[in-house]
Amino acid sequence: MPTFRYTGRNHDGSAVQGEMVANSPGEVIGQMSNRRVVLINLEEIEEKGMGNKASFFDPPPSIDEMILFSRQMQTLISSGVPIGRAFSGVRDGTSNRMMREVLTTIMANVEAGTELSQAMSEFPKIFNRLYRNMIRIGEQSGQLDNSFGQLFAYMETDQDTRNRIKSALRYPSFVLLSMFSALFTITYFVIPTFFTFFEKFKLELPWQTKLLMTISEFTVNYWYLVLGGIVALVGGFIWYIRSPEGEMWWDEFKFSLPVVGSIILRGTLARFARTFSMGSRSGVPLLQSLDSIADAVDNVYVGKKIKEMSVAIQGGDTLMQAAYVTRLFPPLVMQMMSVGEETGNMDRMMDDIAKFYERELEYDVKKLTSLIEPIITIMLGGMVLILAVGVFMPMWSLVQLSSQH
Fold first, then answer.
1. Confidence of residue 280 (pLDDT cuts 50, 70, 90)
2. Are 87 and 107 in contact (CB under 8 A)?
3. DSSP string, 175-225
4. Distance between CA atoms of 195 and 260, rounded to whole angstroms?
5. 390 contacts 194 by C-beta, under 8 angstroms
6. N or C terminus: which one in the chain shows less Cβ crowding within 10 Å?
7. CA 405/CA 403 separation, integer angstroms
8. With contact defined as beta carbons under 8 Å apart, do 259 and 168 qualify?
């Protein structure tokens, strides 16, 4: 939509000026009339090239940018700044062009009389259901600054949890990638040199060496098939886990991975508990809160289980009974949920559950290196054993043959 710059006089005679996104000049005139503003000048602002307009290649706002946005909005609104001016100030300060356009559109809709949560619903990929529900509760209760503050605190904690999980997975991923790269390099460049040397002496080679020769020869002659196969395998895997069935399988399978599976599970359940606590503290109805949490946990499998909890509660089960059927939570957490449900302090208990999982997560991340090192040592030992049997045994035979002569 085009942007219009206007100047005019308010009902008390004071000068007003600003910019507004609208479909036509008539829409601007109508909105100004509703606000009892007499327009003096109205002109459309021409776009200069790409300017501040977002393009297809502009990335959406990151989690860090959303955290900063929530924090700024909480600070401005709590200081008494009108919401329109608050949005305008945050928009002018952001460097993300897509976020700037989104805030401009939301600001125009809010000025036209649309509720903020409804205006945000036009951008569900940026403001998810949980975010919109929290904003709607803030609007209804008159505590919009508190809603932005809770969202800021939640997203900051959630981002810290995500960073811990990524940090835990970065080391083993790098080691495995390095090992496979080294294995490919040895197979392609190093082993053929040894085998050419062995063939000159007409040695009787063991079957392990012949196997390595076959693998190396295939790699050298058909390296493009090897690389193509790896690319096809990785691409096919990525394509599958992005499909509905594959995403469901992968999100469940991640929890059963050795060593890191428990870390991913604890991080996901910590996110669930933290989100539940925030919704409960803000007065979001239980079923509505569960539906929002199902979209916020960033795991399709856990989201499905949470929706099953919602259905079970609608059928008359208690929260603890519905949670027990999912088999996601250990007995200690189930007991804490039961106490929270009986005492009416579910938000406090969910906070305690989130802290429990976050402490467990921090401990698991710290001990991850000591758990992975034996696995890596075994894998490296296997590689060395293969090379020793396949390469060094013929060399030992060659040394013995030379000593006999």
1. confident
2. yes
3. HHHHHHHHHHHIIIIIHHHHHHHHHHTT----HHHHHHHHHHHHHHHTHHH
4. 40
5. no
6. C
7. 5
8. no
pLDDT at 401: 62
Would you say 189 and 182 are in contact if contact means Cβ atoms under 8 Å apart?
no
Looking at residue 165, its amino acid is: I
**Each residue's pLDDT tens digit, 215-266:** 778 877 888 888 899 899 999 999 999 898 999 999 999 888 877 788 888 8
Burial, 125: exposed, middle or buried (Cβ in 10 Å; 0-12, 13-18, 19+)?
exposed
| Domain covering 154-405 in this structure, CATH number | 1.20.81.30
- Give the three-class secondary structure for 15: strand
- Given this chain, do its domains 63-153 and 154-405 carry the same CATH topology? yes
**Whether 150 contacts 131, CB under 8 Å:** no
Fold of the domain spanning 63-153: Receptor-associated Protein (1.20.81)
Which tokens is 187 given? 């197979």
Residue 81 above 50 pLDDT?
Answer: yes
- Domain ranges, ordered by start, for the chain: 3-45, 63-153, 154-405
0.70 cut: is pTM over it?
Answer: no
Type of residue found at 263: I
Q: Over the stretch 127-162, which tens digit does the pLDDT of each residue have?
A: 887 788 788 878 877 778 888 988 888 888 878 877
